[in-house]
Amino acid sequence: MPQTSQTISDVIDEVFALLQHSGGEEYFGEAISKLQHAEQCAYQAQQAGGDEELILASLLHDIGHLLDVEGTIRDERVGVVNHDEIGQQWLEAHGFSKRVAALVGGHVDAKRYLTAVNPNYLARLSPASIETLRLQGGPMDSATAAQFAEVPELRDILRLRSWDEMAKDPEWKGPNLESYRDMLTRHLAAQAAAAN
After folding, report:
1. What does the pLDDT look like over 104-133, one tens digit per residue?
2. How far apart are CA 102 and CA 160, in angstroms?
3. Range of 140's domain?
């Protein structure tokens, strides 16, 4: 069960409400909405053969932007600067697996890592993504990058980061949010069963 008193269906309803309401807003400096960005990112994960946890992490990677909770650091240009941490904490508190939460929690550090170890990566970032990088601490130093390279889910965190950067096409048409309801239900039910 979620760590709150919510039922699984309550959690899914809350996720949908967050993505549908706040998610309808423009995605920071891009020609798509936050909801379209989430849907595109999840689709990229599906197309690449990601497992359900990776697909859900892709769908929910920016949920921290949609929350108004204690500890939020906001910037009017780029939203919640620490949305990775906020999202990870919220997902863990609402019954998602530690892996889904960790993938969400790692996607900002993945950008900082990639810009440190791959100069070409920085050149491919959108202007909005470059601005958020600056606010999030910029590229990692070599010691921090070496430490990040050892995280257990590194490969999938980097894959999610790649899909995050790709998920900005204003012409994209694909599976909508509703198509992930069953996957969310399966995931949360499995976590609840494992906890009992």
Report:
1. 999 999 999 999 999 899 888 888 788 888
2. 11
3. 8-195
